[in-house]
Design goal:
The chain is of the alpha/beta class. Helix content is 51%, strand content 17%.
Length: 165
Amino acid sequence: MTMPPRIYLDTNAFIFAMEQTDEKSERMNDLFARSALFVQPVLVTSELTLAELIVKPHRDGDVDLIERYDRLIRPSTWLSVMEVDRAVLWRAGTLRAQGKLKLPDALHLSTAYTAGCSHFLTADIGLHSFSISYSIRSEGRHVPVVSMIRPDIPTLTTLLESLSP
């Protein structure tokens, strides 16, 4: 089986999967399950995701959801959970200097880049227009390193098809 591209999951992807009961939620959960078929995790997120996910359940006193998120956001056969280390922090600072990113968004993007992700799945419209690219000096153009994709039904369907055996 060929290794598919690595896909970074923004916090909202987990909210869709765990807190909604619609077609998008079903496809996100299918994506989690299908990614477990590979030798190495295809899906990636940051430890920061856990901190963002548990805010609302703490406010609402939803201990069950807090525990479900705590069990979900751990390194596993289907998910790499990356540390927020010094390299991630440096790149996040550089990204913030280049654009109008909030620190959490810059940390997520920096983590995706550091983890070698080719895609960043997010419903955040502000992030969707941002791209991490590098310059090809000899040709004077920018090549995207991390492509932004939205968690809509057509995109999730395409991702599921790309992960089919």
